[in-house]
Amino acid sequence: MATHKLLLLPGDGIGPEVMGEVKRLIDWLNSAGIAKFETDTGLVGGSAYDAHKVSISEGDMAKALAADAIIFGAVGGPKWDAVPYEVRPEAGLLRLRKDLALFANLRPAVCYPALADASSLKREAVEGLDIMIVRELTGGVYFGEPKTITDLGNGQKRAVDTQVYDTYEIERIGRVAFELARKRKNKVTSMEKRNVMKSGVLWNEVMTQVHKREYPDVTLEHQLADSGGMMLVKWPKQFDVIVTDNLFGDMLSDIAAMLTGSLGMLPSASLGEVDVKTKKRKALYEPVHGSAPDIAGKGLANPIAMISSFGMALRYSFDLGALADKIDAAIAAVLASGLRTADIKSEGTTAASTTQMGEAILKEL
Amino acid sequence: MATHKLLLLPGDGIGPEVMGEVKRLIDWLNSAGIAKFETDTGLVGGSAYDAHKVSISEGDMAKALAADAIIFGAVGGPKWDAVPYEVRPEAGLLRLRKDLALFANLRPAVCYPALADASSLKREAVEGLDIMIVRELTGGVYFGEPKTITDLGNGQKRAVDTQVYDTYEIERIGRVAFELARKRKNKVTSMEKRNVMKSGVLWNEVMTQVHKREYPDVTLEHQLADSGGMMLVKWPKQFDVIVTDNLFGDMLSDIAAMLTGSLGMLPSASLGEVDVKTKKRKALYEPVHGSAPDIAGKGLANPIAMISSFGMALRYSFDLGALADKIDAAIAAVLASGLRTADIKSEGTTAASTTQMGEAILKEL
Ligand SMILES: CC(C)[C@H](C(=O)O)[C@@H](O)C(=O)O
Ligand SMILES: CC(C)[C@H](C(=O)O)[C@@H](O)C(=O)O
What we know:
- Chains A, B: Its cofactor is Mg(2+); Mn(2+).
- The structure is a homodimer of 365-residue chains.
- By secondary structure, chain A is of the alpha/beta class.
- Chain A folds into two domains: 1-102 and 272-365, Isopropylmalate Dehydrogenase; 109-262, Isopropylmalate Dehydrogenase.
- Helix content of chain A is 40%, strand content 24%.
- Chain A contains twelve helices and 14 strands.
- A ten-stranded mixed beta sheet of chain A has the order 2-1-3-12-11-4-5-10-8-9, with helices on both faces. Chain A has a two-stranded antiparallel ribbon with strand order 6-7.
- In chain A, helix 1 links the parallel strand 1 and strand 2 (36-41).
- The two termini of chain A are 20 Å apart.
- At the A-B interface, strand 6, strand 7, helix 7, helix 8 and helix 9 of A face strand 6, strand 7, helix 7, helix 8 and helix 9 of B.
- One 3-isopropylmalic acid sits between chains B (90, 93-94, 250) and A (195-196, 226).
């Protein structure tokens, strides 16, 4: 059996707690002989700052580069609001994305039937929802240069951020979206602002070409990002795969996640390119939710998004799709049994702590 | 009685139809001696392109600069999808905003009780909703330079857009937001991505300073634009005034509008600075909805957003707030009577065409 090398980066806030439940799962998989994982742990975000005055240490970056996959908790919190911009908690995550070239961010927005009523949307608008947002993650305004604040004198400053996209960056994220669509409902909706942004013009042009040249069997639609956002709120089920740039993807994937009412349940995967020699790809898996400092350390956090992110690792990094399916089924069964952490608690259901939820899922397995 | 000079720019699609109902209203106000408007009409968007191969002619730009207020319909449609970027329909609107320095875009998101069920959100989440989005409109990535597509050879192109904000641009939009909040629920939420964008860092810093220095009596909160978008979907009533940049404002105001279920009802105002000498400000008023080419020319369009935009002109340009209140009341009364255009039609209500709706509102007045 192959040994898979994992780097666990719990991060801040509820990160360590929810990561604890993934560790429990890994230990069991190892001891039951179902799979073989070798784990190492590192610091990222505020916890790295507290220890080393950086958002991730060079040592942990080296471990990240050497790992088969990174399992990431969450970063940030008011404690680090005043630290210098370069070493703010988010910088650690952004560096991992950039240095590992994790250009493809997959964010499924799925509505768990048992939780549909937690959505602010009407049940009929979200029940059965299953869309996949494919967000470009290493380009655009997140990393473009110049990115500066200049003092102009007279009490005036000028801030500049730069959105940059090259053809190849749009092509490769397009391919990820089209490939995924083929295994789903075969439809891709590309979103940009071509009526205002040159990067939107190029994005639209390249998506159209990749589609025509390589994926004519998939349906491709184009939407302006603002009206796409509206349609997402109005009737999200019209979408299958949505592909969009880094900044629009940040907004749209969060909104899609919130629509489902299952925010505390949603995982994500950030993938690099497949290496032609090793056939491997760098990857980082993290829940969509943040570090929730207000409930940290209280055993209240929902570990499902974190466990489900580990499930995505099994699927996308280790070709253990069947095992990932079993984890998904275990989560669904535990929810159906009425067990709920505080974030998804409703009348008539049974309260569970972080560990109780993790244990219940493991027991189902 | 002062004479107010209006430039009507109906634009494309349903623009001319809904503008027709504003004309009907203006004619009546003039003939009843309630106010005195002098109107002129121009072309913008696709209709200007068809006539002059530009998105707005120099003649109409001169008229726009000379008018006391511009009443704008909508632009765009598939007919002009392939026209050159510089003369695409939207360019006319963007030029008006920029050349008239209309930096403050006011977008109320109000849920009409009679229409709450048209929302995809649950009634309790939107009933009574009344928020104001204040969007910066002449800066940011919409107008920053460089804004280019460069051919790199080897089949590669590079697209660049630039987000630029200076201190004074953030200050003046901040003041608009704080002033509005004082007349409302006294709360401003500023949204940016300071964890990723330098413009977000400056935006946050300047808002904090303006607040401290000039508006300490108003409550100021800061949200990251992505989580702000989530909160908007989850529980929009937690907001009063939201102030944000041009691109985030584009997305967030559209999403807020869609939440209400009243998209076809919502107006907007785009305002310049008050001239110290004349005490006047340049202004453009337009509905939030687009040109809806699919229903154009069929008498199906809802004229309420357009009429309500004219109401905003009365309020913000001509100090005729009482008259604007009357128009709002007339709209509410007509809705309460059960009259509905196709976009807001539901069981048990009476169908109305564009003109029937316009006439009914006028009759109420
Ligand atoms: C933490 C932050 C830098 C990050 C982003 O903006 O990409 C987060 O919002 C996300 O979506 O993963
Ligand atoms: C038509 C388009 C250029 C415009 C924008 O992006 O600002 C529109 O979406 C709006 O919100 O007024």
